[in-house]
Amino acid sequence: MSQEIVKKSSKKENTLSKISGYGSGKADVVMSVDQVAKEAAAISSSAPNINKLEELAYNKPFLSINNLKAGYGKMEILHDFNFKIAKGQSLCLIGPNGAGKSTVLHSIFGFTNIFSGSIIVDGQDVTKLTPSKKLAKAGIAYILQDKSVFPQMTVEENLLMGGFLKNKPSEAKVAAEMVFDKYSRLAERRNKPAGVLSGGERRLLEISRALVMQPNILLVDEPSIGLEPRFIDMVFGILEDLQKKDGKTIIMVEQNAKKGLEFADIGYVMVSGQTAIAGSGDELLENPDVGRLFLGG
Asked: Is 62 within the bounds of a domain?
């Protein structure tokens, strides 16, 4: 074997030893996405029943998804999907790519085709409402993945964009001032272009823009995506504050499974458009199958 081949082999081994698992922490064995999906499907035979989901929501669900079939165009992604969360709780959806996690958020907000089933918020059927009506009438706000800030607009202008459904512009202005009172980082930069903000500050602005509508439910898509570790901690601290102090109900999809489950009251593992495992965040963190497949060890 040539010296060059030996060097390449050694370099490859060093690279593999640094590869992290699905969440965080090093993994001795790197599993392919297909392998994770296949093994995840194998554990879905003991999927939770409705009683278990109700129990996790203290038997007082504020938002319920009932036997939902939904997808895009004619393609069905969610298959008789059920979901329960109480007011003021947080829930994290994890699972392999293509499991339907983001489709759950899209369906709640009105971005998918609903073939059958229902979505109920505080006793109100919101299944067929448009996204704007869901925001205005049911208090549901969607916080998109990174890069939804308008970089040329000022921080204040970005915030006011979040209040476009307010009945009066003055209401949006008052709500924006409440955000500035809450977050000095944004207040200090209110007249600066949003493009100058750090990654963590941009994420804070995206969250705050949704808060201008004073929602009850926050749908958060990948809050940690593209952020340095120090900013990830900051963003999760903000979400925890919104839940614990302001009573927001938070539903998130998070690729960093360990971080998401540490934050959330409830965790669902999704496989092929259905829930394979459900439990408290702590229970899922201690589940050996979840650890092996999604937490890197």
From this structure: yes
Tokens 């965080």 correspond to what residue?
A: 24
> What pLDDT shows up at residue 13?
40
Residue 117 makes CB contacts below 8 A (sequence gap 6+) with 65, 66, 67, 68, 69, 70, 80, 81, 127
Contacts of 291 (CB under 8 A, 6+ apart): 285, 297
Higher pLDDT, 19 or 251: 251
Q: Is the pLDDT of residue 5 over 60?
A: no
User: Is the distance from CB of 233 to CB of 246 less than 8 angstroms?
Assistant: no
- Say how many domains are in the chain: 1
Partners of 122 in beta bridges: none
Strand partners, 119: 65
- Within 10 angstroms of residue 130's Cβ, the number of other Cβ atoms is 12
In the structure, how many helices (H) and strands (E) does the chain have?
A: 13, 10
Q: Is residue 27 part of a domain?
A: no
Question: DSSP secondary-structure letter at 196?
Answer: G
**Per the domain annotation, does 163 fall within a domain?**
no
Residue 216's pLDDT band, with cuts at 50, 70 and 90, is: very high
Q: Which residue has the higher pLDDT, 145 or 285?
A: 285
- The dihedral built from the CA positions of residue 183, 187, 189 and 194, taken in this order, carries a sign that is positive
Q: What confidence tier does 28 reach under pLDDT thresholds 50, 70, 90?
A: very low
User: Residue 162 is encoded by which pair of tokens?
Assistant: 């979040």
State the pTM of this model. Answer: 0.84
Q: What are phi and psi of 114, to 5 degrees?
A: -95, 115
Residue 31 is classified by DSSP as: P
Give the whole-angstrom CA distance, residue 130 versus residue 198: 33
Take residue 127 and report the two structure tokens written for it: 């299944």
The residue behind tokens 């937490």 is 295
CATH code for the domain of 236: 3.40.50.300
